[in-house]
Design brief:
single chain, 317 residues, alpha/beta, Rossmann fold, seven-stranded mixed sheet, 15 strands, globular, binds S-adenosylmethionine
Length: 317
């Protein structure tokens, strides 16, 4: 059975064409693909019946399930997939301390969620699937991760190759393709994405098309502090990140959602950022939050813009 059988209004023909293109890419011997395929093949024989997605750490496998020498082989593969941006994970008792403590975001989102049991869910910009695993705990019918980057896609494939959770699937697709999944989802997560899009309002319109009547959207975003409904548009970079376009205030983001036609739009959480939530670790060796902020004034980015806060909104169709 294809996951599309759960989505009677999805544009099957166009999705089928895209799927064929991606399958061709994934089966090709292009350098960027081959490296990942070889890594995954080296540990393909390993699996586990031990899964724990309830706590802050996503736990897949226990060391005692492995034969001698296999744990260091797994660690080598995991290290080859650095930088680890989202986590934490424990894979056969190897602790992967990622740059982001994503468990904190999940704890903030959880109380605002409808029951996920039996639901069809999209996680847009799913990265390595940390949140997808946390959703699996609630027995959804399907979580479809949209993730266009090979690195994240293969990292998820590795993790779910060990875990074997059938109702979690990731596709090499971006938010650009979401409207092909017409009226398909009960819940859509859009976390850490909107400020990376040059046309955020158009993106929200596309997302709305993919939602079933009565469904829920969860949006989490970087934001600037303030009550005015305005967005910052950086000249080049914001907090050193070049692909940042509009960084809204919470009310600006609420107005975007309302103007697109979402109902019951609610800002349910806001918090300041700090370097205990996003930091350099043994599994992510590059610059992180503390390098993005003015060392003499934590209220400003290195470019002199207001430092980011994070905001959480919920809306319904
Ligand atoms: C800032 S991260 C956020 C990850 C995660 N959703 C979270 O909240 O922690 C942005 C993610 O979006 C992915 N991404 C980049 N371009 C995208 C696109 N066009 N459509 C969907 N996701 C995209 C990136 O690869 C990355 O995994």
């Amino acid at each position: 059975m294809s996951y599309l059988d759960l989505m009677p209004h999805a544009h099957r023909e166009e999705i089928g064409k895209l799927r064929a293109e991606k399958e061709k890419l994934l089966a090709s011997d292009k350098k960027g693909v081959l490296v990942y395929r070889k890594l995954l093949e080296s540990v393909r024989h390993l699996g586990t019946g031990y899964l724990d997605f309830e706590g802050d750490v996503v736990r897949i496998g226990k060391a005692e399930e492995l034969e001698s020498g296999e744990q260091s082989k797994v660690e080598k593969v995991l290290r080859s997939l650095m930088p680890w941006r989202k986590g934490p994970f424990s894979i056969f008792n190897i602790d992967v301390d990622a740059e982001w403590r994503s468990n904190r975001k999940w704890r903030r989102v959880l109380p605002a969620l409808p029951d996920l049991k039996g639901k069809i869910i999209a996680d847009i910009g799913a990265s390595n699937g940390y949140y997808m695993f946390r959703m699996a705990q609630h027995n959804p019918a399907l979580v479809l991760g949209f993730e266009p980057y090979l690195h994240h896609y293969f990292t998820f494939r590795l993790l779910n190759g060990f875990a074997g959770v059938d109702n979690l699937q990731m596709k090499l697709l971006g938010v650009e393709q979401i409207s092909l999944f017409e009226k398909s989802f009960d819940i859509i997560f859009l976390m850490g994405i909107i400020y990376h899009r040059s046309s955020p309002v158009d993106m929200l319109r596309d997302i709305k098309k993919a939602m079933k009547p009565g469904s829920t959207l969860i949006v989490e975003s970087q934001a600037i502090p303030g009550k005015e409904p305005v967005a910052l548009f950086p000249e080049k970079r914001y907090a050193k990140v070049p692909g940042t376009y509009f960084v809204p205030t919470a009310t600006c983001l609420r107005n975007w959602l309302t103007r697109v036609g979402f109902q019951e739009v609610e800002i349910f959480f806001k918090h300041g950022m700090n370097s205990s939530e996003q930091r350099k670790t043994d599994w992510m060796a590059f610059e992180s939050y503390s390098d993005f902020i003015n060392p003499d004034n934590p209220e400003l980015t290195v470019e002199g813009y207001p430092a980011p806060i994070r905001v959480y909104l919920k809306a319904r169709v």
